[in-house]
Amino acid sequence: MRLYLSSFRVGDHPERLLSLLNTDRPVAVIANAMDDAPEDIRLAGVEREHTDLRALGLRTEEVDLRNYFASHDGLAAEFSRFEVAWLRGGNVFMLRYALARSGADQLLTDLLVRDELVYAGYSAGPCILAPSLRGLELCDHAEAVREVHGAPPIWDGLGVLDCAIVPHYESPGHPETEALGKVAELYRSTGVPHRALHDGEVIVIDGPLTEII
Q1: In tens digits, what is the pLDDT along the chain, a chain of 213 residues?
Q2: Can you name the residues that pair with 213 across neighbouring β-strands?
Q3: pTM for this one?
Q4: Which long-range contacts (CB under 8 A, 24 or more apart) does 130-134 make?
Q5: Residue 105 region, left (φ>0) first, then alpha (ψ -120 to 50), else beta?
Q6: Residue 183: which CATH number?
Q7: DSSP SS3 for 42
Q8: For residue 152, what are the domain limits?
């Protein structure tokens, strides 16, 4: 299993992301955490991911999971073209819904277990891997899922990690750092295992090796 989990954008150690790659297949940019944003803001966010990742010498394409809401057919073949799934930040509950509705949640989990794909990204991307998303409503608007898709939010995470991730922790200048400080405090007071990351920090998992750098 190979994961590159950043607090914010590519973080301070993009060379470690590159070290996880085995092929020159492109990166799938998944931006569905921004599906509740105005379209022009969403498009600008996607373009920023392309710019940042291409600056590392990577080829990128967006995979919009909304295209697979009506039918999951073709999604497995689509993901087989990529070396990395890069899940950017935004609303974690919007991302969770898109993963479930498209079938990408089970597909990505299976690909990780078989070590056929690198899972990478920041903010909502790592948060989604926890056993539960409870507590993150202190930062992200859970009811946005109902407002946009007419469905209730999903509170279960993917369960790839055995702890929650708290990004942007004590990161002056990030607009969500105060809210996520409250999330971390909630986890501490209720005994929820978690790892808080300052912006710039990254969790790298490469098989049996786990590092926070």
Answers
A1: 999 999 999 999 999 999 999 999 999 999 999 999 999 999 999 999 999 999 999 999 999 999 999 999 999 999 999 999 999 999 999 999 999 999 999 999 999 999 999 999 999 999 999 999 999 999 999 999 999 999 999 999 999 999 999 999 999 989 999 999 999 999 999 999 999 999 999 999 999 999 999
A2: none
A3: 0.97
A4: 130/157, 130/158, 130/159, 130/161, 130/163, 130/164, 130/165, 130/194, 131/156, 131/157, 131/159, 131/161, 131/162, 131/164, 132/156, 132/157, 132/164, 133/92, 133/93, 133/96, 133/157
A5: alpha
A6: 3.40.50.880
A7: helix
A8: 2-212
In sequence order, the 6+-apart residues with CB closer than 8 A to the CB of 183 are 135, 136, 138, 139, 166
Residue pair 128/75 in contact (Cβ under 8 Å)? The answer is no
Q: How many domains does the chain divide into?
A: 1
